[in-house]
Sequence to fold (344 residues):
Amino acid sequence: MKCRQKHPYPNGIVYLVSVLVVLGAFTLCQGEENKEENKKVWTDPDTARKEDSDFSIQGEYGLVKPGAPAGVQVVALGQGRFDAYVLQDGLPGLGWTRAKKRVRLQGTREGDTVKFSAPNTPVSAVIRNSTCLLIDEDRREHMLPRIERRSPTLGAKAPRGAKVLFDGSSAAQWDNGQMAGGLLLATGCTSKLRFKDYRLHLEFRTPYMPFARGQGRANSGVYHSGRWETQVLDSFGLEGMDNECGGIYSISRPRLNMCLPPLAWQTYDVDFTAAKFGPDGTRTAWPRITVKLNGVLVHDALELAKDFTTSAPINGPLSGPEGPVYIQNHGNPVVYRNIWVSTP
Fold:
């Protein structure tokens, strides 16, 4: 008579449940670890370069002068994943305009190499050793070096008679102003001085947040007269909408997206013409604004035909021409420096 073998797990259901519980706890633990990993934010380029190899891959590939057949902007998305935007005739400000082609590719890093492709297009690219090999739709090859552009107005000195709002020594010109390491923090601070017509120079740096997306990716803003916002955001490589860097929030998108990669210092140079009012206090003209982002014109004498933009610190009907400069706190460690206002 053959003996019946005893099952090694007499209570199979209990065992299976136990395994599932353990696996679930392990998955949950992994999920929590991944969640922490996805919250990583870098505020210093040297640290980002040491701790995340993706940081040195993201950026611009092309020529620093007009005449290139194409330019490529590479956006880091975390854990070795990237988007690449191939721009006809060069990078923004160096040949590409909204009327020209813009092709999105996706890539994944394998060691020190990233290969990019996309469905339904022959365009592809490979990045290795700080060089992008781009194959265009006509199967032509282009070798594009990685470049780091600087705004031509970076470090611009305040002209004689200008009001210096921040020079790295003190945040005393701001209500709720806070600083760290000689930089003004995006704490929701308002200039103590109020202005009518003015020229504003301001420099800002967005953090490196590869896992963040959309409005959660290095968000802040500079409000003119406390009402109309020039958006600050890490929108490097994106389409360039009114809620992205260079846009006038809820009013107008920029002529082109001149946003540089995260942790690069960037500049806003703004000419603001205040609203006009008649003797009886009736508004006779809306304010107008001309904006250069990183030295390139993105708005030209744009009429601000709204009383205020979303989340403005000053809202309600416009009743006078004067107002403060306001720097928005959106919960991200955006920093500012070299802020001055010149008035007529």
Q: What stands out?
A: Helices lie at 12-38, 45-51. The chain has two domains: 57-147, 163-342. The chain has a mean pLDDT of 90. Residues 57-147 form a domain with the Lipocalin fold (CATH 2.40.128).
